[in-house]
Recover the amino acids of this structure.
């Protein structure tokens, strides 16, 4: 679970200019895990 958070934070820094896209990515990743 902590590694998932690290991956999401890393992606957030890469896509910090579009937060809505980051939120969609995070939801997709979480749905994939669950």
């Amino acid at each position: 679970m902590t590694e998932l958070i690290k991956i999401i934070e890393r992606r957030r820094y890469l896509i910090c200019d579009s937060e809505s896209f980051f939120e969609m990515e995070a939801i997709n990743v979480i749905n994939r895990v669950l």
Summary: The chain has a mean pLDDT of 77.
